[in-house]
Amino acid sequence: MKNILKSLNIIFSSKEKLKILYLSILSIFSSLIDVLSIGLLIPLLSSILNNDNNLLYIDFAKKFFNDINTENFLQFILIIFILLITLKNLFQRNLVFYQLQIKE
């Protein structure tokens, strides 16, 4: 393992190491946004299909937002879902753009 790290130190300059670190952090953040958007599908589909099981999700949302009730929970989840998907797509577009810049 130490030999591999030493060889990587020789191969990459410090500027390239920072680019790799930055790209790794951006990739991890992109994965977290993907997980959040997939995880938000469960309350979204639950609120669309069956309003009886929303009490658990509404209680959780009330911890962060005071104005949530059973009537506006679906709108709240839809707005959060659309914003998260938009943010995810913009972030991934910028990530691909940065990856292409590194290749050049």
Characterization of this structure:
By secondary structure, the protein is mainly alpha-helical. Helices cover 81% and strands 0% of the residues. It contains five helices and no strands. α3 (41-49) runs antiparallel to α5 (73-103). The longest helix is centred in the last third of the chain and has 31 residues, at 73-103.
Overview in brief:
The chain has 104 residues and is mainly α. It is built from five helices and no strands.
Which helices and strands occur, and which strands form pairs?
Elements (H helix, E strand, L loop, with lengths): L1 H10 L2 H26 L1 H9 L5 H8 L10 H31 L1
Index terms:
elongated, single chain, about 100 residues, mainly alpha
Global mean pLDDT: 80
* Cα-atom radius of gyration: 20 Å
Strand portion: under 5%
Sketch the major β-sheet: none
Principal-axis shape: elongated
Low-confidence stretches: none
Tally of individual helices: 5
Order of helices and strands: HHHHH
Helix content: over 70%
Number of strands: 0
- Give the helix/strand class: mainly alpha
Number of domains: 1
Distance between the termini: 29 Å
